[in-house]
Specification:
The protein has about 120 residues and is α+β, with helices and mostly antiparallel strands. It has 1 helix and 5 strands.
């Protein structure tokens, strides 16, 4: 039983590393795309792939872009946002507990309640 718990913990940590790396790549890619005129509408447009373990949803408008990652297994979700903030680009990334089915979280003002900021936000 301890081996199973340890293995699950290791899988969770690897999933977290993979998700956080993808969030970073998404932010860098969207900043580059914005420089050239607009945010990308998908991970594919950025040359990225979420892989088989994560379900990705990208939402983009002229004012910003969000990436939500939901693991196929596990209870921790991941998100990143890139926004036009006047002359600067604002960006942040978060992780936290997945909401109940049907509950929609927002990145409009930073990380959702109960979620943890990953790294430091830019302003």
């Amino acid at each position: 039983m301890v081996d199973g718990a340890l293995q699950q913990r290791e899988l969770t940590l690897q999933q977290r590393r993979d998700a956080e790396a993808l969030l970073e790549q998404f932010i860098r890619g969207q900043m580059t795309r914005h420089y050239w005129g607009h945010f990308a509408a998908s991970l594919r447009d950025l040359g990225l792939d979420s892989g088989p373990q994560l379900e990705a949803t990208v939402t983009s408008t002229p004012a910003g872009s969000e990436l939500w990652l939901q693991p196929r297994r596990g209870k921790e979700g991941y998100a990143a946002a890139v926004r036009q903030g006047g002359p600067r680009i604002l960006r942040w990334q978060c992780r936290g507990p997945l909401p109940e089915k049907g509950v929609r979280l927002s990145l409009a003002d930073g990380c959702p309640d109960g979620w943890t900021q990953i790294g430091s936000p830019s302003s």
